[in-house]
Known about the structure:
Distance between the termini: 175 Å
Number of strands: 0
Largest sheet: none
Number of helices: 3
Helix content: 55-70%
Radius of gyration: 49 Å
Structural class: mainly alpha
Amino acid sequence: MSDKTRTVEEPAPDVPSSGEPTQAEIEAWAAEERARREEWLKGPTAEERAAYAKRLRHRRLADTFDEGEQMIDEWGRRGLRLGREGQLAAEGAVALFYKFSRRTFAELVKAGREWEEDTALPSRRRRVPLEDEVD
């Protein structure tokens, strides 16, 4: 009869089993990662700092330029709107004035004259001679 127990052979450490990385690949990756982390802990180099400062200056300048353009656009839109509203107000005033009849215009003039008479300063008083003083 045959022996039904099988012995499992362990693969050699450098031979990958079913697509897994070898021990050498793992150690190489770990060494690269340690080196990368050590570089990160040291901080940026002078060239990296200069490049970052340059990018930051350009970004801020672009943002400032964009804000200026937005402000100019806003003032332009506001000017167009106010100009249009002024035109409509003038046209409306002319239309209302045109609708008044001559009689209404005459009534307005009369009311204006009455208002001036009521609010005007009193005229200078003249001296009226008394009866005894009359020659």
